[in-house]
Amino acid sequence: MSKFARIIGTGSYLPPGIVSNDDLSKTINTSDEWITTRTGIKQRHKVDKETTCDLAEIASKNALDMAGIDAKDLDLIILATTTPDKIFPATATMLQNAIGASCPAFDIQSVCAGFIFALTTAEQYIKTGMAKNVLVVGSETMSRIVDWKDRSTAILFGDGAGAVVLSGSEETGILHSSLFSDGSYVSSLQVNNNYINETGFIEMSGNEVFKIAVSRLSSLAEETLKKANMSSDDLDWMVPHQANIRIISAVAKRIKTPMSKVIVTLENQGNTSAASIPLALDTAIRDGRIKKGDNLLMEGIGGGFSWGGVLAQL
Ligand code: UT7
Fold first, then answer.
1. 245 lines ligand 1 (CB under 6 A)
2. Which of 132, 202, 250, 266 is deepest in the core (most CB within 10 A)?
3. Other residues' Cβ atoms within 10 Å of the Cβ of residue 306
4. Both 254 and 120 in a single domain?
């Protein structure tokens, strides 16, 4: 049994295809000015032929490289995705094969909170001694469930993948985590099919989601810090889900954290759902902003609704 679960490596990958706000304004009634002001997003990446598993494979290999861990040494793979490549098998099992691992592998579906749910689950496996090294991935091809004619959602989402290797340690790692769900909000943010064999697209009551996101994520941040006996002064970084710059800055303001301590990647990536937090984390670790020993608060909310947060020392 390990006292803590520590992040020992991160990786990410964005497919090369880019859709700019100007590209979107050629096909739907929108503008770069509207999208930038209301969301902070300037462009998003979009797959061509690549699958969710393909994106996850590259992000995972990058994370394993940084961790110095061979895929054969993984005890578990948890992949969070809203956009699995197939109804079955789990995309995690295809990823297991692609990276040459042989451990159990399963998917988690908690939409934009998926990475937080996956990380928290991985932490439990490590702390109970069931696993030592766990690969936790968020990978999405959101462009496949976007209605490209709907200006209220097509402007928001992007494709990409992020991954971390979580490992058992006596050194500090995850300090506190909490998860929540409220299924009474299904129709506020959902894919609008009725049955699994019907095609569906993302449907969202943007305004309602915006208000709930700010209120739930602000309370979550306050409670998480309180439970860890910390104040926002003890936080080095917030690594939030990247849905809208106005949501991110409202939460930061509420917990009195300056934007200089918040990792923001949505300008170039849009909302990559379960991939957005590990993508932001990897970006800021690789560019040298986040360093070993820093305290991070990661949190996210998504689809009809699930939300959660993880406070960790890197
Ligand atoms: O990751 C999961 C969680 N998801 C989120 O957190 C998303 C939360 N919601 C949001 O980020 C925002 O609500 C949106 C960015 C989706 C929308 O921003 P808003 O400030 O809430 O705009 P709105 O929906 O209140 O719409 C304002 C106006 C409307 O026109 P009228 O009724 O005032 O004439 C819309 O029809 O803007 C119009 N509009 C647009 N105009 C140009 C809506 N979408 C667009 C668009 N381009 N793309």
1. no
2. 266
3. 22
4. no
